[in-house]
Amino acid sequence: MASYLFLCLFLFFPHLYASFSSSGSQSCSHPEAASLIQFKNSFSITQTDDAARYCNDFSGLKSYPKTNSWKEGTDCCSWDGVTCDHLNAHVIALDLSCSWLYGNFPSNTTLFLLPHLQKLNLAHNDFNYSKIPSEFGRFTSLFFLNLSRTRFVGEVPSQVSHLSKLVSLDLSLNFGQTFDEHALEVLVHNLTEVRHIFLDNIDMSSINPHVFMNLSSSLRSLSLGSCNLQGKFPKNIFDFPNLNLLNLGGNQNLNLDLLMFNRSSNLEYLDLSTMSFYTELIDSVGNLQALQYLDLSGNSFLQGLSVSITNLSSLEYLSISDANIFGGLPDSMGNLVSLKFLYLYRSNLSGPILKSLGNLWQITYLELSQNQLSGQIPFLILNLKRFEYLGIAENSLEGSIPDEVTTFPNLISLYLTDNLLDGKLPSWFYTAPSLKEIYLCQNQFSGHIKEFQSKSLEWIELEDNKLQGPLPSSIFQLLNLTHLSLSSNNLSGVIEFSMFSNLPNLKHLDLSYNSLSLTSNSTSSVNHILPNLTNLILSSCNLGEFPQLLKGLKSLERLDLSYNRIEGKIPQWMQEVGHDSLKYLNVSHNSLTEVEHFPWKNITVLHLSFNLIRGNLLIPASTINVFLVSNNNFNGEVSSLICNASALGILDLSYNNLSGTIPQCFGNLSYSLQFLNLQKNKFVGAKCNK
Ligand SMILES: *[C@@H]1O[C@H](CO)[C@@H](O)[C@H](O)[C@H]1NC(C)=O
Ligand SMILES: *[C@@H]1O[C@H](CO)[C@@H](O)[C@H](O)[C@H]1NC(C)=O
Ligand SMILES: *[C@@H]1O[C@H](CO)[C@@H](O)[C@H](O)[C@H]1NC(C)=O
Ligand SMILES: *[C@@H]1O[C@H](CO)[C@@H](O)[C@H](O)[C@H]1NC(C)=O
Ligand SMILES: *[C@@H]1O[C@H](CO)[C@@H](O)[C@H](O)[C@H]1NC(C)=O
Ligand SMILES: *[C@@H]1O[C@H](CO)[C@@H](O)[C@H](O)[C@H]1NC(C)=O
Ligand SMILES: *[C@@H]1O[C@H](CO)[C@@H](O)[C@H](O)[C@H]1NC(C)=O
Ligand SMILES: *[C@@H]1O[C@H](CO)[C@@H](O)[C@H](O)[C@H]1NC(C)=O
Ligand SMILES: *[C@@H]1O[C@H](CO)[C@@H](O)[C@H](O)[C@H]1NC(C)=O
Ligand SMILES: *[C@@H]1O[C@H](CO)[C@@H](O)[C@H](O)[C@H]1NC(C)=O
Ligand SMILES: *[C@@H]1O[C@H](CO)[C@@H](O)[C@H](O)[C@H]1NC(C)=O
Ligand SMILES: *[C@@H]1O[C@H](CO)[C@@H](O)[C@H](O)[C@H]1NC(C)=O
């Protein structure tokens, strides 16, 4: 979006391009440099909250402290984010978006002493819930102002309407910002040049939408998403000859006379999500021949999808997720030949998947998860070569996945979890060269897991199927693997822990509930082979002892060794395993006889039930939340130390030989404790002082 808008600006203001691009020979004046330094010094340069993360993860902008390059005594025209006019070296543009500025925005900041500023971008910084100072009105030369996602709150000052040269105004995503109706009216009236207005998430619940009637006829973008607008939106919005982007999404109580869409021939981007529209209204959208982006998600009144939508032959992005299109998709969906992204997540779709979707040969992203789709996956769909993402999880698909299809050169993610799919895993599953994530759990897949030819996989979830036979040796060569989950199948064979030594990135390993035997033939070589493991789930893996593999696992968080044959005591060396990190330990249903320590400082769930453990009941760290020790041979009294566990919610001490009185301080746990089982012990009545 940003680069696109920038391009627009240059197309219409070619003289600006000249001044932006050249770095002149003159250096900036001392007062301007001093003003910039003082502005910088009014903030602490800290990466806070999600502002910086947003830059990196979502918008692809780099987030770093641009002002670090600002050094007194150097030419400010060369500083990062500063642009000067090459004739007289005035600072004319300042782009400090994603620059870690944090702190209250001072209303007397020296920034306002830069009278030649034409472009100001402070997006994605954190002004700590301060107000936009009315002094912004002094930037009368500004044509571009971007204060998006800056944590400004409160009323937008009416002085913003002094910026009558503004071409682009972005105040979006400042939650807790409001507009006074009169201020907005004046703004709309005075910004006669404005082309791009982004005011998303500003609270406009007290504003009559008719104020938007008199917007400049140059308008190209109007984004008012989730502004809590109420009432009827002026229908002359359809008369703006150049309107290209319209976002009214998320305004649940806003009406729009959709029948007028036949006039908006230049519209390319339209967001009408979560606006309570009915199918009949959406009908007229079919006239928008230039439309590339359409979001109708969250309109629960849709009943089926009107054929007219399939008229949008330029459409590249279509989302009707979280809507009710129970009536189904029209067959002519296949006419949307430009579609690259199709989101129909949780849209109340049922019946078979439309075969005509197989005509969408440009599609890269198809999301059909959480519907009630049934029948087989059409062969034609799996012939679409450009998929990067295919999600049809949580439906009722059945039959096997077609095998003789394209090799999916670009496929990265495959989500088919929770269906009724059966048969063998398709052969392309082993060969797709870019595949990183496969989620096929909770299906009925059977047969062997074959050798992987592609090594790109990072995430494999195959649990809850009927896969059988040994693990292919190539699985231990998937060097980038971080998550391997194979539980609850019929896999068999012997796995040497040393086989994992090529998978140093592995974080999650779940082999439970198969017929696998895990062994280590050499005790020394398996230490430290999985340094980054955080979750190890080896329930029912025929283990006779605590696996040596655990040695050296400093960041383990979750360990499940339940339903094995482990005897004796928890070995001394286990004290080092996850010492500060372990949160969940389940060693229930073994034959342990002794526990000497609970060294884990961060433990929240400790499950020791169904063993043969004798001796006094040890009390775990006070972080404990679930403590289950039933069906053991614990004896003696319960220490009142247990009451230090202020978050204890579930305590099961049943079926032991515990005796004495129940500690009186149990009463202090009454806020946290939800479940308490003490039965079948030898407790005597608690002394009651009250
Ligand atoms: C405002 O800046 C942010 C971050 O650079 C960018 O994503 C957004 O598109 C900009 N808004 C406008 C209207 O240019
Ligand atoms: C942010 O605001 C809070 C509350 O007003 C204040 O205590 C804190 O000092 C401010 N932080 C900065 C860096 O200005
Ligand atoms: C702005 O005002 C504050 C106090 O109100 C003062 O400490 C600071 O020096 C002033 N800054 C400038 C640049 O005048
Ligand atoms: C409208 O813009 C002009 C500058 O073009 C300015 O002088 C005037 O004060 C503005 N009006 C309001 C009501 O802000
Ligand atoms: C729009 O402009 C017309 C003519 O200038 C004026 O009469 C009308 O009151 C304005 N409407 C709004 C809502 O500002
Ligand atoms: C647009 O549709 C409306 C309602 O169907 C109709 O009255 C109007 O004449 C149409 N306008 C154009 C320009 O086609
Ligand atoms: C499809 O678009 C054409 C103009 O290209 C228009 O005449 C026709 O009415 C549209 N059909 C539907 C169903 O909207
Ligand atoms: C799905 O559609 C049916 C039929 O219109 C309706 O009864 C049901 O409430 C819808 N479910 C959801 C989650 O919208
Ligand atoms: C493994 O990950 C690295 C770093 O992301 C990447 O460069 C490499 O190509 C990946 N290996 C395979 C086989 O995909
Ligand atoms: C462990 O994880 C860290 C951070 O996630 C990564 O930098 C490091 O390379 C990983 N270690 C190994 C041996 O892969
Ligand atoms: C342990 O088993 C692995 C894999 O089966 C094998 O490569 C290795 O040579 C064995 N090491 C010893 C010491 O037997
Ligand atoms: C302890 O647990 C808390 C909460 O789950 C977590 O934030 C913290 O990082 C953990 N400490 C260590 C050392 O892992």
UniProtKB/TrEMBL annotation:
Signal peptide annotation: 1-18
InterPro entries: Leu-rich_rpt (IPR001611), Leu-rich_rpt_typical-subtyp (IPR003591), LRR_dom_sf (IPR032675), LRR_N_plant-typ (IPR013210), LRR_R13L4/SHOC2-like (IPR055414)
Listed GO CC annotations: membrane
Keyword vocabulary terms for this entry: Leucine-rich repeat, Membrane, Repeat, Signal, Transmembrane, Transmembrane helix
Chain ranges of the Leucine-rich repeat-containing N-terminal plant-type domain: 32-85
Record carries keyword Hydrolase: no
Name of the gene: LOC107931100
Name of the protein in question: Receptor-like protein Cf-9
Positions of transmembrane segments: none
Domain Disease resistance R13L4/SHOC-2-like LRR: 219-347
